[in-house]
Amino acid sequence: MNRMQGQRGMTLIGWILVLAIGGFFLTLAVRLVPVYLEYFSVASSVDSLKSEPGIVKKSPGEIRDLLERRFAVNDVEHVTPKDVRIERQGGQTTVDVKYQVQVPVMGNMDALVRFDKQVTLR
User: Fold this and answer.
1) Is 83's pLDDT higher than 70?
2) Which of 94, 43, 45, 91 is CA-nearest to residue 66?
3) Cβ(5)–Cβ(13) below 8 Å
């Protein structure tokens, strides 16, 4: 009787499964990281409006133009003019940028990421 006792380790199928799962998450990260980096550019552009001198005296159209120029400088591709909403209420101006990005992951599987950045200017 020749029995092997105490065998340890993963089988080939186990390793293939681990590599497949790791590859999936690596692919997901490679696809989603640029989208989140773009969102951080959008957020910093919107937040920088607070420090703009005389921003509360500007019209919504002027604020929109200023924001679009900042998006162009930061190479923001997924935000369209219809995604930016500017409202005045009392002495406050609210700038709301709400958009979504659909990223192909693999095959017919996509990831949908929604972003919403709002700032109140006083």
Assistant:
1) yes
2) 45
3) no
What is the model's pLDDT at position 42? Answer: 97
Phi, psi of 90 (to 5 degrees): 65, -130
The helix/strand/coil state of 45 is: helix
* pLDDT category of residue 2 using cuts at 50, 70 and 90: low
Beta strand ranges found along 1-122 (DSSP E):
84-89, 92-106, 109-121
User: So where are the chain's domains?
Assistant: 35-121
Q: Cα separations (Å) of 119 from 1, 95, 122? A: 76, 5, 10
Q: What is the largest CA-CA distance in the chain?
A: 91
